[in-house]
Structure formats: C-alpha cells, structure tokens
C-alpha cells in the first residue's frame, strides 16, 4: 500500500516525501507544480502532474495505486497574498479539499494527515497556545485552513475518514545535505530573506516593527525545523494505522525567538555582516506565536531534534549557498 502525498513538490511536502522514502514507504505524489518544483521531486516516488481540484486526475491516481492514506500539503500558503486574493485561497484550498475528500470517499481511503497552521488561532489570547484555544483567524489563509479542518471533522463523522491535523508554527531550515530546501517565487519568510543579504541578493533586511510588547520590541516566533515537521507526519500515519482517533496537534519548539535574535544568529552562522533597517509593523502580525506541543509529544511520541535556532538557520544557509536561485540552479 502507498502513501499519497498531495503537494509533494513543495517545501514541506518534499521534506516529508524524503523522510517517508527513507523509512521505506511507497510514495505517490500529485502536484500541479504551481508553487512546487520539479527539482524537489524525490526520484523514488511515483509522480503525477495534476491538480487536486480535478476529480479525473485524482481518480487516475487512486485507481492506478493502492493508496492507504493521504498526506495533504497542496495549498496556497502566503498570508499577505491571501488578503489580496481571498477567492484564490478559497478555491485552491477549500474547494481542493472538497474534491480530495470526495475522491477519498469514492475510493474508500480512510486516513488523511493534513498540513494546518498556527494562523488558525489568529491573535492568541495566551502563550503558549494549546490546541483547544479559540480559533479566530485574522486572514483568509488561516480561515481556509480552519475551514479545511472543519470539513475533515464533519466528513470523518459521516464517512468514517480519520484525520490528523498538524498545526505548524514557523517552518524553517532544510535537509542537512542542502539537496532540498525552501524556494518560493515570492519570498516573504524571515529566514530566507535574512540570508539573501549575505548571499548578495538583497541589500538589507527590514525589521517589521520594533514597538511590540516583547522583550526587544520585535515579534517572537516559534521556529521549527522542516525535518522535525516531516517526522511528525510519519508519526501521524503510524497513529492512524494503529486506529487512533481524529485529532489536532500543534507543532513547534515551544520557544519564542525575536526578529532581532534571528538576525544576530544569522550573522554568527554565516560569519557575514547583515545590514538591518527598521520599518513599521506588517499588517496582521501577532506579537508572539509560541506553541505548546505537549500533546504531539505525548500522543504521537514526537520529539523534535532541532531545538537550536542556530542549527536551523545553518541548514537553511547550506541550502541557499548551494542553490542561490532555488531549484533554477
Ligand atoms: N519579518 C520581518 N521582516 C521581513 C519578514 C518577516 O521583520 O522581511 C518578521 C515578521 O513581521 C514576523 C517574523 O519576521 O514577525 C516572521 O515572519 P514570517 O513571514 O517568516 O512568518 P509568519 O510568522 O508571518 O508566518 C508564519 C507562517 C505562516 C503562518 C503564520 C501564522 O509562515 O504560514 O506564521 O501567523 F500563517
């Protein structure tokens, strides 16, 4: 039986495929390569170029392979873009989930591991954030992910599909050998933007806001290594294989690092000067997002290995140095 990875050519999807293949799983990927990269595809996985919103494409995959479970990464994931183009996000994310769940029901596939986000919480009422805290997304991206979770909940009750939803905090880093990593056409994430300065691709990094109620005035985030995230998907598959009930888990390190701390750490890791400018707040950024991942540790047995942000940034640096133009290199 195989694991179907939707969005296996994307950043987190490609790392999950790597870990699945390393463990000896049979992996099938479907990806429309809209934001994913051909160069990120794992040669050991069977690849279908197709869109999850196309029921015929999904029927072909489900009929040609014996799929045991789905791991679903195929979605748009930029907060700012989602505010500008909410309907794009509702179409690709929410409608995509509908077509995928319909195909799973049609083909009697009973398990799904879903890529969710800290953005489902919105502005947190307490830190660290727990899974049963209020969800009140402040942007369409978070709203679509929360809606997708709700769709799985109701479908699980009606059709018996069991799910695990993994709410990632700030995904970062790359496979240690630098063969796969983070490559977005429009880059908005802090670590790749910081590293563009020592790479000579950007003059400076702008800090968005220095007047937050945090120790140094800049936002605190919980950075979690992409391989630790990937491993949580393998544990979630094991959990569902053992008959585990549908559930939701936060994935983070449980420590907040400020934007200033991240820049200082990047200077140490790269050994290069990084010019910094200070700007105003970016709309919609909460002051702090820090996870409690106790539930994932307890129930899934998850034990993240990259607690040190210098190590996380180090793996990103190895990737970006090897591939300054992403998968174009
Ligand atoms: N930041 C800067 N300058 C930049 C880019 C980012 O100061 O040039 C700051 C942001 O203001 C934020 C922090 O760096 O405080 C991290 O920003 P990212 O864009 O890297 O990540 P976010 O915390 O905004 O986003 C993450 C995930 C999203 C998820 C979101 C939940 O990447 O998928 O958390 O709010 F939706």
Layout of helices and strands:
Blueprint: E1 2-6, H1 11-22, E2 26-31, E3 46-49, H2 55-64, E4 67-72, H3 79-84, H4 86-106, E5 111-117, H5 140-159, E6 162-168, E7 170-172, H6 190-196, E8 205-208, E9 220-221, E10 223-225, H7 226-241, E11 247-251, E12 257-258, H8 259-270, E13 276-279, E14 288-289, H9 294-300, H10 309-322
Bound molecules: uridine-5'-diphosphate-4-deoxy-4-fluoro-alpha-D-galactose (UFG).
Q: What percent of residues are in strands?
A: 15-25%
Q: What is the radius of gyration?
A: 19 Å
- Mean pLDDT score, rounded? 97
The strand count comes to 14
Strand order of the largest sheet: 3-2-1-4-5-6-11
Report on this structure.
The protein has 329 residues and is of the alpha/beta class. Helices cover 38% and strands 18% of the residues. The chain has ten helices and 14 strands. The protein has helices at 11-22, 55-64, 79-84, 86-106, 140-159, 190-196, 226-241, 259-270, 294-300, 309-322, and strands at 2-6, 26-31, 46-49, 67-72, 111-117, 162-168, 170-172, 205-208, 220-221, 223-225, 247-251, 257-258, 276-279, 288-289. It has a seven-stranded parallel β-sheet, sandwiched between helices. Strands 12-9-14 form a three-stranded mixed β-sheet. It has a two-stranded parallel sheet with strand order 7-10. Helix 5 links the parallel strand 5 (111-117) and strand 6 (162-168). Helix 2 packs parallel to helix 4 (86-106) and helix 4 (86-106) runs parallel beside helix 5. The radius of gyration is 19 Å and the shape is globular. The two termini are 34 Å apart. The mean pLDDT is 97. The chain binds uridine-5'-diphosphate-4-deoxy-4-fluoro-alpha-D-galactose. Uridine-5'-diphosphate-4-deoxy-4-fluoro-alpha-D-galactose binds at residues 77, 79, 117-119, 141, 170, 188-190, 193, 205-208, 219, 221, 259, 282, 285, 289.
